[in-house]
Automatic annotation (TrEMBL):
Keyword Lyase listed: yes
Family in the record: Belongs to the DapA family.
Pfam families in the cross-refs: DHDPS (PF00701)
Name of the molecule in the record: Dihydrodipicolinate synthase family protein
Keyword Metal-binding in annotation: no
SMART domains noted in UniProt: DHDPS (SM01130)
Length: 296
């Protein structure tokens, strides 16, 4: 098994720029991926929830991956390959490999509340595509919880190499390290970044670097390097924005911040609705405060 781990560092779960007619703006997406790398990010994760993969056509979804690879190289691209069926997820993993990617990120079965046998079978099937798999634990949305004991079993059987941990329970980091010390823990929610970095995270599948990459990267490296004075200061300043990554309206909030800093977030496809006026005002105020403080 190779020790190459392209999921380490700051990988941005990319928002997908949409035009006013809700079509995908692939040119702007390519430019966005390149801009993120130029500003210190290590790579991108297209076709995650932030990328609205659930409402893309198969053709759009494949082209998003190909666009990212063409922009920054496959070694920097770890697509999400979630789907209702294991066979479909495996096909998306195979498509990622054919496009030149070197790893994929996979949710557990999410069409229903899967039991442990189903979870194991799902990851075993997708692992057959031949690419390293990073599990994505999001029990809030999927209703399937990849608890540390299950993650250790998935890793022990060779199905996963890392986990994007989005449960919000930072205590799990220590249990995962005890049960599966070679399983890479990735920060999965922006608003527990400092806590999981201190606990030994090897990477961050990140949301808010879509809008503020340089400050976010500085925060991550200060946290994992143990420069807690720098990290705490940045964390306090950014947390009014970072906490939106764990809210229902995270896609709309991050896209609004992108628009405010001169990027192109654009609208979201239905059924996501625009932010309520009070939500928009809160995101706008927090973004403008961060920019005024010199964070970018």
């Amino acid at each position: 098994m190779t020790d190459h781990r392209p999921w380490r560092g700051v990988l941005v779960a990319t928002a997908l720029p949409l035009n006013d007619d809700l079509s995908v703006n692939y040119d702007q997406y390519a430019e966005h991926c390149a801009w993120l790398v130029e500003n210190g990010c290590d790579g991108v994760v297209p076709n995650g929830s932030l990328g609205e993969y659930q409402v893309l056509t198969p053709e759009e979804r494949a082209r998003v991956v190909e666009t990212a690879v063409a922009a920054i190289g496959g070694q920097r691209v770890m697509p999400g390959v979630a789907a209702y069926g294991s066979a479909e997820s495996r096909r998306w993993a195979e498509q990622a490999g054919e496009a030149g990617c070197e790893a994929v990120m996979l949710l557990p079965p999410n069409a229903y509340r899967a039991d442990e046998r189903s979870v194991l079978a799902h990851y075993a099937e997708v692992a057959k595509a031949g690419l390293p798999v990073v599990a994505y634990n999001n029990p809030i949305d999927t209703k399937v919880d990849l608890v540390p004991e299950l993650l250790a079993r998935l890793h022990g059987e060779g199905h996963i190499r890392g986990v994007k941990e989005f449960s919000g329970d930072v205590r799990r980091a220590y249990r995962i390290a005890e049960l599966a010390p070679e399983l890479d823990l990735l920060i999965g929610a922006d608003d527990v970044l400092l806590e999981l970095a201190v606990a030994g995270a090897k990477g961050w599948v990140a949301g808010y670097p879509n809008a503020l990459p340089q400050a976010s990267v500085e925060l991550y490296h200060a946290a994992v390097d143990g420069d807690l004075d720098t990290a705490r200061d940045l964390y306090r300043q950014l947390h009014p924005l970072l906490r939106w990554d764990s809210r229902v309206e995270f896609v709309q909030a991050i896209k609004l911040s992108m628009d405010l800093v001169g990027r192109h977030g654009g609208p979201c496809r239905p059924p996501r609705m625009p932010l309520l006026p009070e939500q928009e005002a809160a995101v706008r105020a927090a973004t403008e405060k961060a920019v005024a403080a010199g964070l970018s």
